[in-house]
Write a structure and sequence with these properties.
Number of helices: 2
CATH superfamily: Phage tail protein-like
Strand content: over 45%
Structural class: alpha+beta
Low-confidence stretches: none
Shape: elongated
Mean pLDDT: 92
Radius of gyration: 15 Å
CATH class: Alpha Beta
Number of domains: 1
Helix content: 10-25%
Number of strands: 6
Order of helices and strands: HEEEHEEE
Largest sheet: 6 strands, mixed
CATH architecture: 2-Layer Sandwich
Distance between the termini: 18 Å
């Protein structure tokens, strides 16, 4: 089973601070949270995982009163995920309580356990 969260976190840190859990109410924004929504053994060869079907969720909190700053961060994060080979499977822009904006995006990729290559 591959843990790609550290790799993705490192790449997304160029966009904003990355956390592996939802930020508390006092967190300084902007911040991106990253969650592994699924990690399914897809292909097993010789009793060893070869391909893992991985779903990642990003929650981008821009911190502004309009969605523009959140969307700017989301576009940057989306480009990074695409370069890594992850395919966006859903996206939602949400206005949170207090008028803060959050962009939630889910990505899916088939990760080769040996080479690290991502098929989408």
């Amino acid at each position: 089973m591959t843990d790609i969260l550290p790799f993705i976190s490192g790449k997304l840190s160029a966009v904003a601070r990355v956390e592996l859990q939802f930020p508390d109410a006092k967190t300084t924004l902007p911040v991106i949270t990253i969650t592994e929504a699924a990690n399914i053994s897809s292909v097993v060869l010789d009793n060893t995982d070869r391909l893992s079907d991985i779903t990642i969720q990003l929650d981008i909190f821009g911190g502004g009163k309009t969605p523009a700053d959140t969307m700017e961060l989301a576009v940057s994060a989306d480009k990074i995920m695409a370069v890594m080979g992850m395919r966006r499977i859903s996206a939602n822009l949400i206005c949170e309580a207090g008028g803060k904006w959050r962009k939630t995006m889910r990505y899916r990729g088939l990760v080769d356990e040996i080479s690290g290559y991502v098929y989408n």
